Amino acid sequence: MTELSTHRTLKISNVSRRQLLKGVAASGGLVLLAQLSGVKGALAGYPTGASAMPNGVVSDPKVFVSIGNDGIVSIVAARAEMGTGAARTALPMMLADELGADWARVRVVQSPGDEKTYGNQDTDGSRSVRHFIQPMRQCGAAARQMLESAAAKKWGVNVSEVETQVHEVVHKPSGRKLGFGELAADAAAQPVPADDKIKLKDASAFRYIGKGNVRPTDQVDITTGHATYGQDVVLPGMKFAVIARPPVVGGKVASL
Question: Any bridge partners for residue 67, and if so which?
Answer without folding.
Answer: 73
